[in-house]
Amino acid sequence: MEKISRYFRQSLTRQFIGLMSLFIVLFLVGGALVLWKQQTLVNTFEAKREQLQQKERYAEQLDRAFTQAFFDARGYLAFGRKEFKQSIYQQKEQVVATMQKLKPLAKTAEDRQLLEEAAAFTSYYFDDLVKKAIADFEAGNIQAVLKASENGGTASIQRFQKQLSEYHSSLVEQIENEYKQLKMTQAQLQYSFLLFIFLMMLLLMSIMRMMAKRIGRPLNAFATAAEKFAQEETDVHWSFANERDDEIGKLSRAFQKMIYSIREKEDSLVAQNEELLAQQDELESQQAELEQALETMQRREEELRRRNEFINGLSNSLDKQEVLDSIVCNICKVMDADRGMIVLLNDKKSYAAFGVSAQGVQQFLHELDNGMYQRLQKTKQPFSVKRELPTSEKGYYEEALYSYDLVLPVLSAQREVEAIMMFSRFRGDFSPHEIEEYERLTKQVSISLQKIRLYEESEKDRRMTQDILNNIQEGIQLVDMRGVNLMMNTQLANFLHVDVNEISEAPYEQWKSLLLQKVVDEKNLSDYLDRVLLHDTLETKSFTYHVKGEKKVIHMYAEPLYRGTERFGTVFVHRDITKEFEVDQMKSEFVSTVSHELRTPLSSVLGFTELMLNKELKPERQRKYLTTIYQEAKRLTALINDFLDVQRMESGRQTYDKKYEDIVPIIQNVIETQKVNTTIHEFMIQKETNRTIVLGDRDKLAQVFTNLLSNAVKYSPDGGKITVRIYEQGDRLAIDVTDEGLGIPAEAIPHLFTKFYRVDNSDRRRIGGTGLGLAIVKEIVKAHDGEIAVTSEVKKGSTFTISLPLVAVETDPQNDVPIDKGMNVIIVEDDRNLASLLEAELSDSGFSVKSFKNGKEAIGAIKAEKPAAVVLDIMLEEGEMSGWDVLEKMKADKELSSIPIIVSSALEEKEKGLMLGASDYLIKPYQPSQLTKTILHMLLKQERQGEILVPVTDEEDK
What we know:
- The protein is an alpha+beta fold.
- The protein is built from 28 helices and 24 strands.
- The protein folds into five domains: 2-217, no CATH class; 317-454, GAF domain (Beta-Lactamase, 2-Layer Sandwich), CATH 3.30.450; 472-576, PAS domain (Beta-Lactamase); 657-810, Heat Shock Protein 90, CATH 3.30.565; 817-951, Response regulator (Rossmann fold), CATH 3.40.50.2300.
- A hairpin with a 6-residue loop joins strand 1 and strand 2.
């Protein structure tokens, strides 16, 4: 301990460092304890919040599972579909699994109570209520189902849902309370930390005061003694600090010894003073010599000044001509030359001259290659020439005068002559020393020219970069770390209404103010720019803003720039996303429209179904309700098909079964369908040609005309005439669909075939629609190598024109053999209701029909009976062969491979089915009559071998 104490007594520095180290250790320990406490609080809060959130998720899963089970039970009781029944028990398994997950987290009485009530409700609902309701429903006892609902089934469900909701609200409230408690504890901790800092500051002040007292007092006494000694007082003594071991004690003892030493040597100093007086005379004699040297030094100083002017002239500018002028003028001063000139040996022969006439400059440039350049190129050494001045240069002098010309080559880094300098003076020749000195100046000139050349190249690259940026559609800006604008392309400059050169080097606040004047959300954009540039955070790299007074949306994003690992700036890119923004808006509006469009027919279906289930109705009213349900189901099917068509078109998976079809029957069938939906419209067909055959997909073409005629009906709310005109345009078939309705504004026509677009008009908004119909029409027409156009006049009507490639049909009537409708057809379908429907449809058409539920039985029957056609579902009973297996097995069997197979499935995998060998592919739901037509068409195609289809040509018309 004594050694440590002595160690610190010997040095003030050690004492100070020791005290400060103690202070820092105390400060760090206290700060670390505060941070540890704060982190402990945060971790505890996070653990509690995670546990509560997990409970919340499980409660939501229970709510979703029970809700799904309720809807599935109602769906099964309403429609009797097996998948609803299966889903009920799947939801039960989900409920049980979720309760098992929630059980380890049930720490409170409320949690355990919820689990007990959920378990009881699960047992009651699934094992008692649902099981009995399903049994009664399947037994046909609908009244028992309704009675069970009225006797408390619905009330118990609502009561349990309310308990789940209250439990969820309780969990949310617990999370909020935990967060408030955390904030309160953190605030207390912060106040404690501030108090700790205040106490540490007091301790620091005490340490500083103690050190000042320990050092200041001895130094003041020491200064007083030194002052007395300086005033030659004889009684100078002190009794402080001599016993100290630190620097002050050592200084005190050394000063005391110095006083004694000075007094002892005072006599010696007096003698030396006399000797110095003697030396003064000698110094005076040397003064004259120094004055002469001073004149030489001043002359040299003048030369150095001129050289500095020369060097400054080289470095103060990057303009080539300005630098050349500076070189000539300053070297003339350095050489004391009367005239001079420099010429660059580049393509432009850039030059600068001093004291030389324009005629003399041209003469020098013209005679440059007549020997002087060759000598310099060969020797690369300067040379001087003495010549007599001609009369034109002598002025008023009559005697002989001479000029001394010095020619200097400027050599590049590759030792090539890149410039020639020539200077003339009349007062005397250039000495070898001067020529050597001036030759060194040419190296400075060479360095300056190289710097200018590099600058010009970099400036050329900069202009090229600026040109590239100016031709980019996005606005681009480069700023440094302080936000100063380094570069901006013309697109952004034009947007800000400033000149690119004026905004260059503009500070952050200036260009930021110009940008904020253009946007709607100034505050958020200002905060975003501050975060990126002032706080150096790129957590949010992008920002989207709207332009004032314009329907323009700009997406702005920032990217840091690095040289190696050091960041030196930021690039801002402003991209116009107005079109994308409008599409997003249209999609949002589309979602709202679709929800309305889907709910309306679904409400009708559910409402009329419930009436038919719960009330005894007369046959005519039942038929009316069933007709309404059928129409609304068709409407739902059309909407869903539109969505699926758009998805397939966007993904490139849309397929077309193109055949040679007569367009007139397709249009007639569509018109007959549309007549059911209106009594105030008159439909007319104007057929102006007998050649109406096209190569196309019948269903898709029907979809096109259904959309066009449906729009004609919808957008003619007051009724009127709807005309379909069929005529030829060269080698194409044209079809006009004309109505007398509202018409289309001119500004809306360019957007008419855009997905989700609907004309912004209150009259049209009341009509409804998804905005997909015309987009689908355009894609289908385009896939048939056709075109679609529209002309319209507001309040007078619109005309949509479709043109398709025309083909001619030549038929051999001898081969038109009727089909034996007693042929066998086998249906492979596990849905008994649908199988019965298809069986009835085909039987009515004259076919002999058998149906099977699984693939193995179907394969055996097909091998035994060799049917004329097979109708095959893909999704068969679980555990048996799938439809794909049946299809592949039939195509692998030589005896069965020739049998036509029509796939009937809800799966949209038409391409796969046709690739595996299916003859056709029908996607559920479809009209049963469509199946009959498909089979008849396929069998007729096998019989009619004489049909010839050829394209229409102008020669055939002649």
